C-alpha cells in the first residue's frame, strides 16, 4: 500500500528588528504551531537590500521609512514548512497594522509582539510566487522542491 501523501509548503518568515529580542520565544511559538524551521539566518540588511526585498512597495509614501526600519538592526529570516504554510503563517501573524490588529485580532502575533503600523514584529510571504522569491533572497542556494516531513532543520 502506498503511504499517504502529505503536501508540505514553504514560506519565508522574518523576525523584524522590533521583535528580535523575543526571537527565541517567537521561534518556540512557530514550532508549537506545527511548522518545521528548515533554514535560519540572522542578518542586518543594508538599505539597498531592504529596498530590494520590499521592491513591490517602491514609490509608496511609507517606502523610505520602511527601508530605514528594516535596515535599522538585525532580523532573523526563517524558512518555515508545513501544510498550507503561506496562508497559515499569514493568518497567525495577523493584519499589517499592529494598532488595528490589537482591536480586531487581539490574539494574533503582530497584536501581541508588534509595536505600531510599521514596526509589526513579523513578516510573511503573501503568495507562492513571493515565497519563492523571498526564500531565494535570503537563501540563494535553497532548492525549491517538496521537503519530506520531519527533515532535520539546520541553523
Ligand atoms: P510584510 O510584507 O512586512 O509581511 O507586511 P504585509 O504583507 O502585512 O504588508 P505590506 O502591504 O506588504 O507592507 C509591507 C510593510 O510596510 C509597512 N507598511 N506601512 N504606513 C503604512 O501605511 C504602511 N503600510 C505598510 C509595514 O511595515 C508592512 O509590514
Ligand atoms: Mg507584504
TrEMBL record:
Keywords assigned: Cell projection, Developmental protein, Hydrolase
GO MF assignments: hydrolase activity
* Entry's Gene Ontology cellular component terms: cilium
Q: Where is the Nucleoside diphosphate kinase-like domain?
A: 8-146
Please indicate which superkingdom the organism of origin belongs to: Eukaryota
Indicate the residues that form the catalytic site. Answer: 123 (pros-phosphohistidine intermediate)
What positions does the entry give for ATP binding?
A: 16, 62, 90, 96, 110, 120
Primary site of residence? other
- Compartment list: Cell projection, Cilium
What does the sequence similarity comment in the record state about its family? Belongs to the NDK family.
* Protein name per its UniProtKB record: Nucleoside diphosphate kinase homolog 5
Q: What range of the parent protein does this fragment cover?
A: 11 to 165 of 218
Amino acid at each position: 500500500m502506498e503511504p499517504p501523501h502529505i503536501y508540505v509548503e514553504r514560506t519565508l518568515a522574518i523576525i523584524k528588528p522590533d521583535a528580535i529580542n523575543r526571537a527565541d520565544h517567537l521561534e518556540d511559538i512557530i514550532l508549537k504551531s506545527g511548522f518545521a524551521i528548515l533554514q535560519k539566518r540572522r542578518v542586518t540588511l543594508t538599505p539597498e537590500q531592504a529596498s530590494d526585498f520590499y521592491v513591490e512597495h517602491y514609490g509608496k509614501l511609507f517606502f523610505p521609512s520602511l527601508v530605514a526600519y528594516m535596515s535599522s538592526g538585525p532580523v532573523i529570516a526563517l524558512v518555515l514548512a508545513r501544510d498550507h504554510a503561506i496562508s497559515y503563517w499569514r493568518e497567525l501573524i495577523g493584519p499589517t497594522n499592529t494598532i488595528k490588529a490589537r482591536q480586531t485580532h487581539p490574539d494574533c502575533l503582530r497584536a501581541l509582539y508588534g509595536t505600531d503600523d510599521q514596526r509589526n514584529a513579523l513578516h510573511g510571504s503573501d503568495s507562492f510566487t513571493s515565497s519563492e522569491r523571498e526564500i531565494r533572497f535570503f537563501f540563494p542556494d535553497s532548492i525549491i522542491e517538496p521537503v519530506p516531513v520531519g527533515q532535520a532543520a539546520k541553523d
